[in-house]
C-alpha cells in the first residue's frame, strides 16, 4: 500500500519494462556516420526550413489542436477521409494513443517479436498484456501464428511492415488470409513507418487493405522518408468513428505549429523527397548485395536498414563499426541493425563486415 511508505512510489510494473534505448545521439568522432536510428541522412529542404521559420512567428499561440490543414493535406495525398486522420508527436505517441483508446486493463495485444522495441513498453503503459509471437529466422512476421495467438481478450494486433529491425514486409496474400482469420472486432494496426521504402511487388498494400477492412488502422510517420524525425509528426489513418476515439486519448496540442507546417511543406515537396527515398533504396540494394556477396545471410529489407543476426556477437560487431567510424544499433544477444545512409558509410560498413568474416 503506497500510504505505508514515506515517499511517492512509481508504478511497480514500469520498473520491469525493458528500456527503449535510443541510438547514440551524436556520432563518436568527427568522421563518424550515424546509422543507428533509421534516420534520413539528408538535411531538410530549404522550402521546409523556410516553412519552419515562418511558423516560428506564431509560437506565442497554441497550435491548431486538430491540425486541420495537415490532416486535410494527408487525407488528400492518400485519398482517405481527413476525419480519419489523427496526428501526434511521432507515430510512437500515436500508437500509445491507439492502445489507450482501445485497451482496458488486462486486455491482450498480440505483438511480433523481435520487432519495434517501443511495442512492449507502449502495451504495458496502456495497462494491456503483450502476447509475443516470434518472428521467423528469415526476419518475416509469422502471421499464421499471430492469428492463432488471438484470444477472447485480444483487442489489438500490431503488424509491423516492414518489420523493424529485421526488414521484410508482409505479403499481400498472407495479410489477406490473416484478416480473414482475425475476428472483426479486433483492431489490426499496420505500422507502416517505412512504407515509402517498400519496392517488393508482392508486399501488402496498406491503403487498399485499409479500404477493404474497417478494423484496420494505418500508422505512418514523417520521421523517415520525409526526414522530420526531430520535429515529431506521425499519424494514424482509421475509420472516422475510431479516429474520434483515438483523438480522445491524444495529448492536447501535441503537434507543434512548427511541426505541422514542416509536415505540410514536406507534402508539397513530396516528389523531391521521394527522389531521395529512391537514392536510399539504391544504397540499400548496394549494401545488401555487398553483404551477401561477402557470404552474409541477410533478410530481405524493404526499409531503410538491414539486419545482421549476429546473436551474441552483436555488441562486439557494433563496437568494431564504431571504431571504424559508423555508429550502428546492436540488440544485445540478437543482432545489429544498420541504417542505410551515406554511400561513404556503406563503404565503411562493408569493410568492417568483410574484416569480420576473415
Ligand atoms: N514504428 C516503427 C516500426 C519504427 O521503427 C519507428 C521509429 N523507430 C516508429 C514507429 C516511430 O517513429 P516516430 O515516432 O518517429 O514517428
From TrEMBL:
Catalysed reactions, semicolon-separated: an aromatic L-alpha-amino acid + 2-oxoglutarate = an aromatic oxo-acid + L-glutamate
Residue numbers bearing the N6-(pyridoxal phosphate)lysine modification: 224
Domain of life of the source: Bacteria
EC number annotated for this UniProt entry: 2.6.1.57
Glycoprotein as UniProt keyword: no
Positions of the Aminotransferase class I/classII large domain: 33-351
GO biological process: L-histidine biosynthetic process
Keyword annotations from UniProtKB, A to Z: Aminotransferase, Pyridoxal phosphate, Transferase
GO MF term set: aromatic-amino-acid transaminase activity; histidinol-phosphate transaminase activity; pyridoxal phosphate binding
Subunit structure: Homodimer.
Function of the molecule: Aminotransferase that catalyzes the conversion of aromatic amino acids and 2-oxoglutarate into corresponding aromatic oxo acids and L-glutamate.
Family per record: Belongs to the class-II pyridoxal-phosphate-dependent aminotransferase family.
Protein name per the record: Aromatic amino acid aminotransferase
Species in which this protein is naturally found: Cellulomonas composti
Amino acid at each position: 500500500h503506497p500510504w505505508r511508505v514515506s515517499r511517492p512510489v512509481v508504478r511497480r510494473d514500469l520498473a520491469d519494462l525493458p528500456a527503449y534505448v535510443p541510438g547514440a545521439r551524436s556520432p563518436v568522432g568527427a568522421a563518424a556516420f550515424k546509422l543507428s536510428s533509421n534516420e534520413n541522412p539528408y538535411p531538410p529542404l530549404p522550402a521546409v526550413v523556410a516553412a519552419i521559420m515562418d511558423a516560428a512567428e506564431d509560437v506565442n499561440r497554441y497550435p491548431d489542436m486538430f491540425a486541420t490543414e495537415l490532416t486535410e493535406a494527408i487525407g488528400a495525398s492518400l485519398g482517405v477521409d481527413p476525419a480519419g486522420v489523427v496526428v501526434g508527436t511521432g507515430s510512437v505517441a500515436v500508437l500509445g494513443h491507439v492502445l489507450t483508446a482501445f485497451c482496458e486493463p488486462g486486455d491482450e495485444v498480440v505483438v511480433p517479436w523481435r520487432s519495434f522495441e517501443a511495442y512492449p513498453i507502449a502495451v504495458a503503459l496502456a495497462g494491456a498484456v503483450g502476447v509475443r509471437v516470434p518472428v521467423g529466422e528469415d526476419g518475416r512476421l509469422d502471421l499464421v501464428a499471430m492469428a492463432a495467438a488471438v484470444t477472447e481478450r485480444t483487442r489489438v494486433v500490431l503488424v509491423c511492415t516492414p518489420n523493424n529491425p529485421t526488414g521484410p514486409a508482409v505479403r499481400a496474400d498472407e495479410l489477406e488470409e490473416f484478416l480473414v482469420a482475425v475476428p472483426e472486432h479486433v483492431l489490426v494496426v499496420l505500422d507502416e513507418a517505412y512504407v515509402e521504402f517498400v519496392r517488393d511487388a508482392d508486399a501488402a498494400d496498406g491503403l487498399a487493405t485499409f479500404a477493404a477492412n474497417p478494423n484496420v488502422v494505418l500508422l505512418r510517420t514523417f520521421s523517415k522518408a520525409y526526414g522530420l524525425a526531430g520535429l515529431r509528426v506521425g499519424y494514424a489513418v482509421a475509420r472516422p468513428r475510431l479516429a474520434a476515439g483515438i483523438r480522445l486519448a491524444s495529448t492536447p496540442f501535441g503537434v507543434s505549429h512548427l511541426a505541422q507546417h514542416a509536415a505540410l511543406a514536406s507534402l508539397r515537396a513530396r516528389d523531391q523527397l521521394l527522389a531521395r527515398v529512391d537514392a536510399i533504396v539504391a544504397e540499400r540494394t548496394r549494401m545488401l548485395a555487398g553483404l551477401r556477396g561477402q557470404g552474409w545471410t541477410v533478410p530481405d529489407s524493404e526499409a531503410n536498414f538491414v539486419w545482421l543476426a549476429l546473436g551474441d556477437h552483436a555488441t562486439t560487431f557494433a563496437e568494431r563499426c564504431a571504431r571504424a567510424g559508423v555508429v550502428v544499433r546492436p540488440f544485445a544477444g540478437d543482432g545489429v541493425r544498420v541504417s542505410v545512409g551515406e554511400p561513404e558509410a556503406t563503404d565503411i560498413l562493408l569493410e568492417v563486415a568483410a574484416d569480420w568474416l576473415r
